[in-house]
């Protein structure tokens, strides 16, 4: 140091003493500096105070000479003592050179730096807190990294206790400590992460941006470490913590927790399965978020898909096959959440949706990652049921719930059928959802229930064993006198064709409930009825659907509904591409199965005269069609009746009846077809339909002009005879009986009693 340099206001004696190798002389110089600074404080001479501090910092504390650095440190401490409560105004200038000395190679110098800092902090007290981070980093890292005596095990309980403090500075202190510990290579903080993770997520919600940012960094470092060393992570002990914070209203906390959940599911795999109900409670609502929370929605979707992939057929194994050891090591579904809630101090669990509190209570407790995992289906189904029942839940969430149910019925059908009775009503109710996509997914679930072998029993009317408990008293069937679905037969009464797949006991229950819903919600039948039935024909066997519905409608007491439903089914049968194969099956009635189906449909189709005729046209029963039309003269001809005849004429002109129109060329072999069409023509008033059919019949050729010797032989071979196994006379009697019932009901409604005069209602 240059002895001739001017260090004013420090005197030459002070400068000499500060550079002395003896501590006592440096101490004397410090006392002189303290006296000098006190005088400047009394004079309010801030310029000289700053000049003294700057000189001690630049010329002494940061000097290349070790004794000068020691003198600068004790001089800065003396300045702080002299300044007293005003030291807070100069803390940055006082602290920075001291902290620089913390990195000195000389351990003795580092000691003097700690001593100086102690004196500065002791005087400044609370004013030092804004500089806490740099102080803490300088002190703690040096202490922890250079000492093997640090008791981490004893420190963690203290950290866990203090981490729930709401004080901003205390939180800053905690985060700084965790950052230091995380940066030490020899300390594996992952082992203790379950102890502090909940508190970290609470600190992440701090109002201070700086603290939130620090906490983000800490959590980010932990997640990186988890990805590097997943085998040493206690995933199960932290699962419930993430579930809780995935449901908070704070976007940053929710997104961070959801990102952690995504990594946990992907890294831990089936270890996360016991926590599925809790994860779904947190994840499913996020799937309906709008673009304002797009990031959370995207991560939640990955979590949902990844969790679904973890469910495998092995989860459907009977519990009794598991060993006693496995049962003892399985997660306990009672106590873990209570533990997490107990450690939280007004934590985010209070913001969880109360409607799902009962579902959350089934979360399993933390367990060792090596323990066998169990899929707790009861909790999962309860969560899915709650979300599907909540009409306020968004469309994407409802679709996700239905995808989950379908997946569970595919992967774990045996166990899922234990829950079918509780799910059945809400699945039927979901058919009224506004979204076509939701309805389609709902139909897929219902179709899987109705066709799964797991739902098959020896006696379809009586479930077999504990796995399938159908409560027949809870069947969704009407009890009023207007509908007779209550009087429908058991599934034994359904004469399914041998060639069709056998449905389980839920198939017939589904058909009963579906028709009941159409009966009670006529708007559903009008708007969605055809869509629902057509989709079911794709998902299930079309013949079984029509056969069962016809069988049920045959016993329907609400005749008006029966007529409407038959008309709907007939329109679908004649026009839908999904029913092409079934139409071909009915077209020729070559097999006993097709004849059986025709008879079954016919008996219910009798609720609607015009649809009955169209069925005969479809099956090429032209003689019987003519016989039916002859009976129309005894029916009450209403406007609705004539409208249906009009629609049938329009339908005859469609491609589906191309074969019928071509058969008009063969007059000699199809006389009853022509008679039947003329019969329809005679029923119609002079309308556009009348003109259309009249023009068609005018195109029928003169049989004399088309007759040749070869055509006569071909005609004899091609002439179609009535099926001998079908009793057409009995069918005609049945038609008359059903139509008389309809007539009686209409007369009772109009107050005409038994007066059955036929009249045209205009």
Question: What does this 3D model show about the protein?
Answer:
The protein is mainly alpha-helical. It has helices spanning 12-18, 23-42, 46-61, 66-83, 91-101, 107-124, 132-145, 152-162, 168-183, 193-203, 209-228, 235-245, 251-268, 276-283, 294-310, 324-329, 336-343, 357-360, 377-389, 395-411, 413-416, 420-429, 436-451, 505-520, 522-539, 542-553, 559-575, 580-588, 592-605, 609-618, 622-631, 639-652, 658-663, 671-683, 688-698, 703-706, 709-718, 728-750. Helix 9 packs parallel to helix 11, helix 19 (377-389) runs parallel beside helix 22 (420-429) and helix 31 packs parallel to helix 34. The longest helix is centred in the last third of the chain and has 23 residues, at 728-750.
Task: Write a concise keyword list for the protein shown above.
762 residues, mainly alpha, 0% strand
Category by helix and strand content: mainly alpha
Percent range for helical residues? 55-70%
Total of DSSP H or I helical runs spanning 4+ residues: 38
Spans with pLDDT under 50 lasting ≥5 residues? Answer: 327-370, 458-500, 715-719, 753-762
Task: Provide mean pLDDT, rounded.
Answer: 82
Rg from C-alpha positions? 43 Å
Assembly type of the chains comes to single chain
* Head-to-tail CA distance between termini: 123 Å
Strand content: under 5%
Shape: rod-shaped
The largest pleated sheet is described as: none
Tally the beta strands. Answer: 0
């Amino acid at each position: 140091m240059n002895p001739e340099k001017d260090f004013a206001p420090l005197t030459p004696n002070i400068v000499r003493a500060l550079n002395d190798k003896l501590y006592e002389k440096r101490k004397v110089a410090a006392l002189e500096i303290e006296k000098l600074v006190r005088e400047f404080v009394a004079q309010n001479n801030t310029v000289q105070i700053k000049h003294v501090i700057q000189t001690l910092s630049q010329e002494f504390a940061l000097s290349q000479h070790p004794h000068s650095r020691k003198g600068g440190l004790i001089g800065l401490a003396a300045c702080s003592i002299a300044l007293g409560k005003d030291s807070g105004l100069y803390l940055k200038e006082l602290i920075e050179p001291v902290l620089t000395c913390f990195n000195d190679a000389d351990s003795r110098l580092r000691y003097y730096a700690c001593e100086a800092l102690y004196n500065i902090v002791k005087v400044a007290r609370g004013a030092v807190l804004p500089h806490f981070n740099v102080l803490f980093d300088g002190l703690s890292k040096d202490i922890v990294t250079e000492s093997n005596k640090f008791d981490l095990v004893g420190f963690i309980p203290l950290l866990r206790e203090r981490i729930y403090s709401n004080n901003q500075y205390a939180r800053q202190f905690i985060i700084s400590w965790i950052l230091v510990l995380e940066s030490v290579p020899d300390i594996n903080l992952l082992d203790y992460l379950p102890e502090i993770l909940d508190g970290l997520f609470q600190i992440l919600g701090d109002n201070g941006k700086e603290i939130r940012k620090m906490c983000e960094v800490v959590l980010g470092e932990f997640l990186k470490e988890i990805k590097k060393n997943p085998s040493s992570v206690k995933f199960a002990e932290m699962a419930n913590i993430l579930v809780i914070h995935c449901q908070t209203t704070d976007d940053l906390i929710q997104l961070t927790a959801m990102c952690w959940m995504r990594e946990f599911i992907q890294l831990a795999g089936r270890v996360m399965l016991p926590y599925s109900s809790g994860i779904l409670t947190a994840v499913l609502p996020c799937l309906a978020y709008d673009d304002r929370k797009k990031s959370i929605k995207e991560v939640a979707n990955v979590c949902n898909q990844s969790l679904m992939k973890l469910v495998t057929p092995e989860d459907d194994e009977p519990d009794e096959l598991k060993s006693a050891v496995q049962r003892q090591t399985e997660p306990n579904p009672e106590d873990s959440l209570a533990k997490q809630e107990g450690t939280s101090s007004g934590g985010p669990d209070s913001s969880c949706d109360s409607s799902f509190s009962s579902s959350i209570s089934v979360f399993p407790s933390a367990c060792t990652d090596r323990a066998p995992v169990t899929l707790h289906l009861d909790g999962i189904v309860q969560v899915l049921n709650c979300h599907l029942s909540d009409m306020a839940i968004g469309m994407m969430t409802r679709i996700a719930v239905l995808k989950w149910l379908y997946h569970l019925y595919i992967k774990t059908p045996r166990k899922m059928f234990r829950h079918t009775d509780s799910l059945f009503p809400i699945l039927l109710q979901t058919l009224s959802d506004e979204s076509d996509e939701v309805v389609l997914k709902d139909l897929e679930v219902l179709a899987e229930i109705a066709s799964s072998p797991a739902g098959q029993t020896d006696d379809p009317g009586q479930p077999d064993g504990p796995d399938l408990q159908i409560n027949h008293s809870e069947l969704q069937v009407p009890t009023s006198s207007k509908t007779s679905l209550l009087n429908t037969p058991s599934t034994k009464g359904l004469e399914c064709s041998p060639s069709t797949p056998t449905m389980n006991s839920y198939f017939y229950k589904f058909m009963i409930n579906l028709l009941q819903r159409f009966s009670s919600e006529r708007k559903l039948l009008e708007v969605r009825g055809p869509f629902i039935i057509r989709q079911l024909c794709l998902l299930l066997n079309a013949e079984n659907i029509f056969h069962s519905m016809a069988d049920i409608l045959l016993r329907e007491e609400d005749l008006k509904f029966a007529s409407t439903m038959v008309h709907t089914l007939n329109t679908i049968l004649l026009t839908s591409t999904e029913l092409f194969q079934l139409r071909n099956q009915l077209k020729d009635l070559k097999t006993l199965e097709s004849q059986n189906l025709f008879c079954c449909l016919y008996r219910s189709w009798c609720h609607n005269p015009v649809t009955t005729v169209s069925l005969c046209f479809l099956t090429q029963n032209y003689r019987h069609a003519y016989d039916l039309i002859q009976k129309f003269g005894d029916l009450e001809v209403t406007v609705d009746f004539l409208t249906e005849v009009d629609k049938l004429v329009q339908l005859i002109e469609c491609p589906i009846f191309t074969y019928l129109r071509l058969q008009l060329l063969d007059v000699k072999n199809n006389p009853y077809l022509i008679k039947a069409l003329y019969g329809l023509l005679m029923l119609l008033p002079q309308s556009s339909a009348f003109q259309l059919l009249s023009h068609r019949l005018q195109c029928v050729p003169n049989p004399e002009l088309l007759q040749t010797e070869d055509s006569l032989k071909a005609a004899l071979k091609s002439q179609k005879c009535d099926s001998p196994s079908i009793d057409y006379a009995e069918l005609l009697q049945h038609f008359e009986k059903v139509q008389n019932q309809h007539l009686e009901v209409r007369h009772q409604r109009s107050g005409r009693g038994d007066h059955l005069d036929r009249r045209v209602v205009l």
